[in-house]
Design goal:
This protein is mainly alpha-helical. The chain folds into two domains: about 1-100, Rna Polymerase Sigma Factor, Chain: A (Orthogonal Bundle); about 115-170, Arc Repressor Mutant, subunit A. It contains seven helices and no strands. It has helices at about 5-25, 30-45, 55-75, 85-115, 120-130, 135-140, 145-170. The protein is elongated, with a radius of gyration of 21 Å. InterPro entries: RNA_pol_sigma-70-like, RNA_pol_sigma-70_dom, RNA_pol_sigma70_ECF_RHOBA, RNA_pol_sigma70_r2, RNA_pol_sigma70_r4_t2, RNA_pol_sigma_r2, RNA_pol_sigma_r3/r4-like, WH-like_DNA-bd_sf. This is RNA polymerase sigma factor. It comes from Novipirellula galeiformis. Belongs to the sigma-70 factor family. ECF subfamily.
Length: about 170
Amino acid sequence: MDETTRQATRQWTLAQPAVSAFIASVVRDFRDRDDVLQNVAVAVVESYHSYDSSSPFIPWAIGIARRQVGLYLRRRGRDPLVFDDDAVACLAIAFHEEAQERSHALDFLQDCLGSLDGRAKTLIGLRYRDDMKPAAIASQTDMTPNSVAKALQRLRDQLRGCIERKSMEASV
């Protein structure tokens, strides 16, 4: 596999959930959704050479998905419940905006995680990086499973609040 294909695959892996959600919002039949998603994946890899790496990848991939959905809808034109091109365009814009918001939230999460102290960072790391349950974390931290669960809940609340504050600050 050459480096361009490798890069396209990496980018697609990150974009696929947003693109899949966009397709699912328009294409009702799950088998057709899978076919359209597969066509989009092929088109993304085949068109990757035209992608401008200075712009966000997800909106570019959603643009390709929009064209593939348009082709699908034209083939299914006899179906009375098919969206028109304007509705699909509106959905593409909405998914692009949502993807940007989620991207910002992930950036804010990274900042908020960086501000945690030692024990909090350890608990979050054991739970989400190492995928340990509270009982297993308790055995490693001299805490009870119940106190681990409560501490994790407080940390999630703290992180949510931090993300919301940073989001409000960014929008001002």
